[in-house]
Design brief:
The protein has 2 helices and 21 strands. Helix content is 7%, strand content 38%. It has 2 domains: 90 residues, Immunoglobulins (Immunoglobulin-like), CATH 2.60.40.10; 170 residues, Distorted Sandwich (Glucose Permease (Domain IIA)), CATH 2.70.70.10.
Length: 302
């Protein structure tokens, strides 16, 4: 189980970027595991690149009371009195490829403390590019929609900034459209109508209109409504700052405040909002870390 405390300014980031055989028909790539000498933590990742994540697990050490880990703005605390634990550190897809220093503070039971620094070199990553044509109002909204768009932006930002104190998920995350092939378009650079550029923060899964979409894990629905750009949208809070975000539905099957179990139907596939055809847009926000949803689905959460 995930049992770490997290503060409002902490970053819980989503997990190792993999495409498993269940997602896209590809074999899972090998993971890298590394340790910091003298620290009872194990770090696992696929790669150190933008959009990737690092899984951190504490190991039994009777001499340790607490370990604090900080990477950029992300902070994680391991309380060894509560037993071993698991944490996630994310590399946002917009992170610059350069060297970062991970700070690790160890407090031992004899009262001694030490601070260590471990260098992580984030390597460049190439993201795909594409050009899309959408309704003109989805590129240059009419003036009368400006206030609505601003209000929705504030609403979503406030929801994603609220950190639930306990883990609400149950086991590993799964595809919201099992059996349907995803597009490899996480982080895609997009040009709409030849003018407006944006970055795709999630992945798209094509499916016929009306196909039932399911919750990727257990949690609490914090938004279920129509938004200007993303159309009919559902956001699920899985606790500790982890959110999954589902867009462009034709019909919603849940409402705000509902508790959902993994696999529950939450909506039906559609093409509302800024969309070029029936599909599901699925993204993951972990506070300010934007990561590939398949990375979250690949993590063996217990």
């Amino acid at each position: 189980m995930i049992d770490l405390k997290i503060g409002r300014k902490s970053i819980w980031a989503a997990v190792v970027l993999l495409l498993t055989p269940a997602f896209g028909g590809q074999d899972a790539p090998a993971l890298r595991t590394f340790h910091v000498p003298g620290v009872a933590l194990e770090f696992t990742c696929r790669a150190l690149q933008p959009g990737e994540v690092i899984l951190v697990k504490s190991r039994n050490d009777p001499t340790v009371r607490r370990i604090d880990v900080r990477l950029r703005t992300q902070k994680r605390r391991f309380d060894f009195d509560a037993g071993t634990g698991t944490a996630l550190l994310g590399i946002d897809y917009g992170a610059k490829p350069q060297a970062y220093f991970m700070e690790i503070g160890v407090e031992r039971r004899d009262g001694s403390r030490e601070n260590l620094f471990h260098k992580l070199v984030v390597e460049p990553r190439d993201f795909p590019q594409t050009k899309l044509t959408v309704a003109p109002g989805m590129v240059n909204p009419p003036p009368e929609e400006a206030e609505r768009i601003r209000r929705e932006s504030v609403l979503v930002a406030d929801l994603l900034a609220a950190v639930s104190p306990s883990w609400l998920g149950s086991g590993p995350f799964v595809s919201p459209l099992p059996g349907f092939e995803p597009f490899p378009n996480f982080g895609q650079k997009r040009i709409y109508n030849g003018r407006i550029a944006s970055t795709h923060s999630g992945v798209d899964i094509s499916a016929p209109a009306g196909t039932a979409a399911r919750a990727a894990n257990s949690g609490r629905v914090v938004l279920a409504t129509g938004l200007y750009y993303s159309g009919k949208t559902v956001i699920i809070d899985h606790g500790l700052g982890v959110f999954t975000y589902y867009c462009h539905f034709s019909k919603l099957r849940v409402k705000r405040g509902d508790r959902v179990a993994k696999g529950d139907i939450i909506a039906e596939v559609g093409s509302t909002g800024r969309s070029t055809g029936p599909h599901l847009h699925w993204s993951v926000r972990v506070l300010d870390s934007r990561v590939d949803p398949w990375s979250l689905a690949a993590l063996p959460l217990d």
